[in-house]
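Our consortium's second objective concerns turning raw sequence data into structural hypotheses that experimental partners can test. To show how far this objective has progressed, the report includes one record in full. It was chosen at random from the queue rather than selected for favorable results. The single chain below, 167 residues long, was entered without modification.
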Amino acid sequence: MWLNIAKKYLGTTEIVGTEDNPKIIAMYANVGFPGVKDDETAWCAAFVGSCLKEDGQPYLKSLAARSYLNYGNKLTNPKEGAIAVFWRGSPTGWQGHVGFVTKWDDTHVWVIGGNQGNKVSEQAFPRTQVLGFRYPAISETTQKVTKVVVENSNKLSLLQGIRRFFL
């Protein structure tokens, strides 16, 4: 799942000075921006898109966080792994932030996101800053199969062996 992919990047940090983190540069390239060669350009949307792409999900070729308001299926409430889109500066402005929901309560939503303190981190944001929650447009069947594969790859290997035996 894309959230597990996001978790493996926790701690990925911008490099201060003239050097740039190649993992962050690769995220830009993954979402269609190979010309971005520095880790100081806003990269939260590149992080989200890159994680989705790495998981084989649809992703946006955009560096604008608010573009994810038009992605996948709209949710009325948070869900683990959902994409949360936040406003920055002004609720009606163009600036935003985007990340993957890990947990929530009545007042805050926690997300794993890129460019949070210049690194990939888990951070709480006020629910009053949420513009929307989105979820990749994948079927329930795909979600169930993915869960089985992720949770128990040994069973999958066994099933593949049985399939080969009968084919």
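The partners drew two points from this record. The chain has a mean pLDDT of 88. The beta strands are 73-75, 83-87, 96-104, 108-113, 121-126, 130-135. Both points have been shared with the crystallography group to help prioritize constructs.
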